[in-house]
Amino acid sequence: MASPSVPSVTSSATSSEAPKPTGCRTGSLTWTLVLLPTKSSSRRNALLTAANKGPKTCVFAGYPGFSVHNGKANSIEGVGHGHPKAVTLHKGASVTVDLQYTPRGAKGAGDYCVKESEALVSAPHNPDRERTNVPVMDTHHAAAQIDACGDSISLSLPHYAPTPATITR
Question: Taking a C-beta distance cutoff of 8 angstroms, is the pair 169, 32 a contact?
Answer without folding.
Answer: yes
